[in-house]
Amino acid sequence: MSSSLPAAVTSTAVLSARGLRYQVGGRTVLDGLDLEVPPGTSVAVTGPSGCGKSSLLNCLAGITLPSAGTVTVAGHDITAASPSRRAALRLAHVGMVYQFGELLPELTALENVALPALMSSARPREVYRRAEELLGELGIAGLRTSPTATLSGGERQRLAVARALIASPDVILADEPTGALDGKAARAVAELLFALPGQRRCALVVVTHAPAVAERADAVLTLVGGKLEREGAR
Length: 234
Ligand SMILES: Nc1ncnc2c1ncn2[C@@H]1O[C@H](COP(=O)(O)OP(=O)(O)OP(=O)(O)O)[C@@H](O)[C@H]1O
Ligand SMILES: [Mg+2]
Hints:
CATH superfamily: P-loop containing nucleotide triphosphate hydrolases
Largest sheet: 6 strands, mixed
Number of strands: 10
CATH topology: Rossmann fold
Bound molecules: adenosine-5'-triphosphate, magnesium ion
Distance between the termini: 26 Å
Mean pLDDT: 91
Strand order of the largest sheet: 6-7-8-3-9-10
CATH architecture: 3-Layer(aba) Sandwich
């Protein structure tokens, strides 16, 4: 790399947030927040209930627009894009594990996982093969034809993780992905998620209250007063 390039050009973060400000319900939830996540690395975000962790992930995914600041995903300024362009960028580059699953109850487990990739891929057979593989990796292959409405909370949570991974995203945002899981299932999900940055050079941001999950991340950040503070690094 040329040493004459200015710092802004040499920045390699696949996910970057600068000066994010977000107000909701009369509160300033994000207050000039900065975050840089290089490819192949993971960040855990902790903080008390209501401090703004889910709001932050929604801004990073381009689901919510901040009142100030920019979010760049895989080189695209998602905050400057139109709503339809934001949706397209999200589909192409972001995998989101929602705190409450956000699965479609009328679809089977396999269909829920395959859906986002079917929307952007012309190869449905390959998508279903990968969806089956992910269900197996998450220990829920036996549920592939089950209506999602009949699954337990922990089974839905694993399904939500599989769905976020189906399109091989550059950025994975996971909101308490192990909150409804017992020790063994939580470890399996955490192992799968934290292996991804190394395997695929993606960026991973995990919101979690579980110290055993947070300590797997390359950096642990706490959301305090609308900004991220660094707790420690490996
Ligand atoms: N649409 C909304 N209208 C009003 N207030 C909102 C809205 N969305 C979020 N808030 C408020 O913003 C704050 C941050 O909410 P957020 O869901 O981001 O917190 P969180 O850190 O994810 O909490 P938890 O750990 O409980 O999931 C809370 O006080 C919440 O009540
Ligand atoms: Mg939340």
